[in-house]
Amino acid sequence: MSNVSDIAADFILEAGEIADRLGEELVELEDRPGDAALLNSVFRGFHTIKGGAGFLHIAPMVDLCHAAEEMFDALRSGRLAVDAHLLDLALQSLDRLNAMLDALRVGAAVPEPPAETVAAMRGLAHGKPAATAVAAPAPGGDTVVADDEFEAMLDALHGKGAAPGVDAGAAPGETIDDAEFEAMLDALHGKGGSPGSIPAPAAVTQAPVPAAPAPRAVAPPRAATAESAPKESEPTVRVEVKRLDAMMNLVGELVLARNRLKTLRLGTAAVRRRATDGELDRAIAGLDLITARLQSAVMKTRMQPIGRVLSRFPKVARDVARQLNKDVRLELSGEETEIDKNIVESLSDPLVHLVRNAIDHGIEAPERRERIGKPRQGTVRLSAQHEGDHILITVRDDGAGMDPEVLRAKARDKGLIGPEAAARLSTEECLHLIFLPGFSTKSEVSEISGRGVGMDVVMSRLKELNGHVSIHSAPGTGSTITIRLPLTLAILTTLVVSAGGRPYALPLGAVEEVFRFDPSSVLYVDGREVLDVRSQTLPLLFLRRWLSIGTGAGDGCVVVVRSGELRYGLVVDVVRGRDEVVVKPLPPRMRHLTGFAGATITGDGAIALILDAHGLYRAG
């Protein structure tokens, strides 16, 4: 039973990757309809998923993929031409395919594909209108085989040709094994295919199609039930063999370094007498080097190309643009950039909101773009790149841009900020108003926007990932939103500070600068302590006071912290320096505390709480 469950888990993982790639390829096909290699790749994608689904007896998935496969086979042979209607059908079938995979992942019933979509694809494949195509019979039912299909199957059995659905590129006269022979005989007699066999083609008749029955939920295969489906709490990751080999080599070196230290520490008296301080220092330095290399190698096993997330966005952009009657091209770059698997999976929703927002609010209608001298087709660029120990993700559009004064007025009119606070906002702070809960510039609610929740979701998720967002925009020239994220959440580069004799860790990505605190330079604005730093007002937060362990230290340091639109000075007793820490989650009883993101153990064995830069200020 476990072997079958493993096969189902592997199929779900592989089919999900193929489906993501298909979404990108189908959008590319609209721009390059004559690309034979692209057509073949799409055809192979549906064919591969169909084969795995057939082996696991997932009949609805087999029916859907087989209909899509027939349609793309007609495209490959030149009987059909790519058009918007055909691609809409293909993308609808891909949406249904993803819904089926989602059902398999959670052990739910696999839904039947829409009968009209399957019939329309088969109708196009056979040169008939969608209304005259009959959906393929369910497995186990009788199948009517036309004379030419019957002859083709017989020719295939005798090695004279390829059976319907068999790759025409196979070598002529290739030997057919017993399983394939039995499968073809079953198809000829209407008994249905064996696992992995190709279903017989649907019969085509001129009679009108009767009303489609209501979709029925099909029980998931035994390999994908709730008991045997892969649990969400046990995610897996694919690791290249060369990375595992490198880790094994490093572990071997680590063992040698350990043995060297044991010899120096626990060896014979003669060995200990010969061991000098220099030898011990060299052994420790070697151990430190190997440990650092092993840490880097282990972290790389968690790294995944961000392209696995970005690959689905061409389809998202196309769907939104067609719904809004806009002409938009999405450009991707940096898909090979690697980032922690957990961050990759958490980035999907924020990036979807940002891309949809760029198309809906940023890109103008084609007619308006022509009137103001822009190309009819708008462009949205989604890129990723490394910068030190962080990753930068940029969403840039060439649309209408954002007017800070309009955003200021909208936030004030909606009651999200007071008139006095609105008047004090800088240009950058006005742009960040789009992340406020309930903020929207749309006067009417649509399926895409107007509720004021999308960008709020983006900011909430990025805070959880210790991310930072910056916005640059000007009316008429477009907008650029840049997200800065750590490469991993398992090991965090921090600035270790102390207050009241206890260490605390602050994510280094949130730190701008550090300088000595001078109590005599403190000013008061609206009753709050601030500093004037290079003609900019910097609000202060005293860590001792926040922790209720006394007043702020007179000779401490100010750590300038930025989190989103927030920028403030955190006054601490001592700045110990930079350190890489292993992040540990807080105990359940402490997770409700605002201002703390986790815990770690410092080099001297002390427990240090990791501060949440944004929550710290809000709670202060």
Textual characterization of the structure:
With 620 residues, this protein is an alpha+beta fold. It is 43% helix and 20% strand. The protein contains 20 helices and 20 strands. 32% of the residues are buried.
Q: What is the overall shape?
A: flat
Order of strands across the main sheet: 12-16-17-15-14-13
Structural class: alpha+beta
**DSSP E strands, number:** 20
Could you tell me the radius of gyration in angstroms? 31 Å
Share of helix among residues? 40-55%
| Low-pLDDT regions | 130-147, 156-179, 185-233
Main sheet summary: 6 strands, mixed
Specify the number of helices: 20
Distance between the termini: 55 Å
Mean pLDDT: 76
Strand content: 15-25%
Write the layout of secondary structure elements.
Elements: H1 2-31, H2 36-55, H3 59-77, H4 84-105, E1 110-111, H5 115-125, H6 147-157, H7 178-188, E2 217-218, H8 241-266, H9 269-274, H10 277-301, E3 303-305, H11 307-310, H12 313-323, E4 328-333, E5 338-340, H13 341-362, H14 366-371, E6 378-387, E7 390-397, H15 404-413, H16 419-424, H17 427-431, H18 454-464, E8 468-474, E9 478-486, E10 491-499, E11 502-507, E12 511-516, E13 523-525, E14 528-533, E15 536-542, H19 543-546, E16 557-563, E17 566-572, E18 574-582, E19 596-601, E20 607-611, H20 613-619
Parallel strand pairs: 4-6, 11-20, 15-17
Antiparallel strand pairs: 1-2, 3-5, 6-7, 7-9, 8-9, 10-11, 10-18, 12-16, 13-14, 14-15, 16-17, 19-20
Helix pairs in contact: 1-2, 1-4, 1-12, 2-3, 3-4, 3-5, 4-5, 8-10, 12-13, 13-18
